[in-house]
Design brief:
Helix content is about 30%, strand content about 25%. It is an alpha/beta fold. The protein folds into two domains: about 1-130 and about 220-230, Rossmann fold; about 140-210, Alpha-Beta Plaits (2-Layer Sandwich), CATH 3.30.70.260. The strands form three sheets. The protein has a six-stranded mixed beta sheet with strand order 2-1-3-6-12-13. Strands 8-9-7-10 form a four-stranded antiparallel beta sheet, covered by helices on one side. Helix 1 crosses helix 2.
């Protein structure tokens, strides 16, 4: 298990290094959140120390702290509302580059940043590429008010869209609810397989208590997937 974990972590760094080749001098970048994105931020910090000029918007407090510690210049979407490129990981992605994100709890800000970019590139190890989304529990960010009512409606909408399953409140190791950087909670929906992820996403958006969900459809145009035999390039609608 340790060897496999090491191999996948190496793949994440290889994919991050490949994506770094897409970064040009003077770019405005969105920086993702999670274990794969951390590799990219580390590698970007090395390039910045060597003279690369970029301006970056982090998608979480954790990424902001990491980037600041590496001397990467930071801004906000209020100050820089249009970005050239966002690079982030994914919990799952299919051949159409529809994603499930939010395992790290930053899905709302990640989607806002991805939507503000001209290009959105995903970097991933080989385990994240799947034939059909749903093996990874779908995160749904919800308002604290009316949580149980919202949870029941989320389960009902998932069932109506052909993927019945439980929606469980994400908790920390001490049992307390996980709280996002925006002050919300997350429901992790164990669905098994999602017949139509984009349709499910639209339906979830119709629930009043849902702030955002982890289905990213028609946002990612390129993915670098590191495998044991090299890096595969996927493009949406290729």
């Amino acid at each position: 298990m340790t060897d496999l974990a090491t191999t996948l972590d190496q793949q994440k760094r290889i994919a991050a290094a490949k994506a770094l080749e897409e970064v040009d001098h003077g770019m405005r970048l969105g920086l993702g959140t999670g274990s794969t994105a951390r590799h990219f931020v580390d590698l970007l910090g090395e390039r910045v120390r060597l003279g690369l000029k970029v301006l970056c918007v982090p998608t979480s407090i954790a990424t902001m702290k990491q980037a600041a510690s590496l001397g990467i210049p930071l801004t906000t979407l209020d100050e820089t509302p249009e970005l050239d490129l966002a690079i982030d990981g994914a919990d799952e992605l299919d051949d159409e580059l529809t994603l499930i994100k939010g395992g790290g709890g930053a899905l709302l800000r990640e989607k806002i940043v991805a939507s503000a970019c001209s290009r959105f590139i995903v970097i991933a190890d080989s385990s994240k590429h799947v034939a059909r989304l749903g093996r990874f529990p779908l995160p749904v960010e919800v308002n604290v008010f009316g949580l149980e009512s919202t949870r029941i409606k989320v389960e009902a909408v998932c069932e109506a869209n052909g993927c019945p399953g439980s929606a469980r409140l994400r908790r920390l190791a001490d049992g307390k609810p996980f709280v996002t950087d925006g002050g919300h909670h997350i429901l992790d929906c164990a669905l098994g397989a999602i017949p139509d992820a984009e349709r499910l996403g639209v339906a979830l958006n119709g629930i009043a208590g849902v702030v955002e969900h982890g289905i990213f459809a028609s946002l990612c145009d390129t993915a670098f997937i590191a495998r044991s035999d090299g890096v595969a390039l996927l493009k949406r609608n290729a």
